[in-house]
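seq as requested:
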Amino acid sequence: MMTVDAAAEFVDLAIVSGYWSPAEQAAAFEASVRRSLARAESDRSCGGGGSGITVRGAAGPLAASARDRDRRLHRRNRLLDQPHLADTAAGRWVALHAWEYGFVLPYTRQGEARSGYAFEPWHLRWVGRVLAAFLNTQRYLDDPMFVVDDYLLAIEQILDAEAIP
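struct tokens:
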């Protein structure tokens, strides 16, 4: 539904994947390191094998259509690892509307220091419509003090305390 609604506003989106096995996550991490990034930078943008939320199937990378991409920003038709997506019509649409479909951007520009992850405007995480709407009212995209994982941890602790499965 999200991609259909975006298309109605002349924005083409594609969810590229929703699950990465631990082996795929580890391969992505190692490829990042091999591309001459410092290991610390790879940790911030890729995470080691088995550590990413894509391993749990709760998140996935996003791509914009060719007509919305700046061809200087990608190689081999990939825009998945570029923070410049935020500056495209697709990136702006996602920042404004993803919450309406239960998705959030877990790694925000303002939350980099708090989360330890680099800003990833192409990385969506499904948290459900209720929590996504709440996070939107809290202006989570602009908050350097709290990140999506803080809210998820708090919910997990409440459920554990209440013994709710």
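The first strand starts at residue 13 and ends at 15.
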